[in-house]
Amino acid sequence: MPMSPRLRAFLKVPSVRQFARTVAVCYLGLALFAASCANTMLFHPPGLRDNISGQIKVHAADGNDITLVYLPKASAAYVILFSYGNGEDVEARYDYFLELRLHGWAVCGYDYPGYGTSTGHPTEAGCYAAINAAYDYLVNVQHIPPARVVIYGQSMGTGPSVDLASREPVGGLILEGAFLSVFRVVTHYRILPWDIFDNYAKINAVRAPLLSIHAEQDQVVPFWQGEELNAAYHGTKSHQWIPGAGHNNILQVAPELYWAALDKYRESLPLKSPMGSAGG
Fold first, then answer.
1. Measuring CA to CA, which residue among 125, 139, 43 is closest to residue 84?
2. How far apart are the C-alpha atoms of 177 and 246, rounded to whole Å?
3. Which residues are the active-site residues?
4. From the CB of residue 167, how many other CB atoms can be counted at a distance below 10 Å?
């Protein structure tokens, strides 16, 4: 039985030009999808919150009012500027900030645009503007020297943390559950000419001691990404890999390992004298 023309056309091997055109169309579609849907897919604010006790409002360069809390500790030599992971906010992390204070740190936490009680809608640029505003508050309002500010980013928060530490003088950088970039969490390789929170491209502009923390059974940000980002950094660095833990339960699985790593890192930093009630 002779093959029908339609079936013959369907089974025909495409030419190189046709194949290249198909690949180009698919690539363009992927790029357009990423550009239009990235913010919606990436950011997941936990919902509307009421104002919390002790919150401070600072004005960001993009026009948003950013909520932050500052917990000074007179005996601390350093203040942690903390950027949390997705689906959280300052109120949800407040008890953790109190734990950080018990372990010798002053703490400042802030909300991204559209998170907590910060105004606006979350975007990559908005997160950068928000952490800039929190950093400016510490340095220019509380008069804390940049060398006493340690930037701490967790998961999504590693994006604004690496970005700030690559541009501004800081005393240290702690990354927990860090990724190479947002797209590479999914694709493993860079396949687009642009990306979101490209930590890998920025890490070697940082000029401060790095501590990397990552759970070995992380199912959200693969462990190898934290390893590779740490390996790529050419400056002073240390790491604490957490066996048996996943992305969100390091403190539940291995609190001793976690706090020992932070204590050891703080003790390795050069400044020992206390800041006082604010900075100096």
1. 43
2. 9
3. 155, 218, 247
4. 14
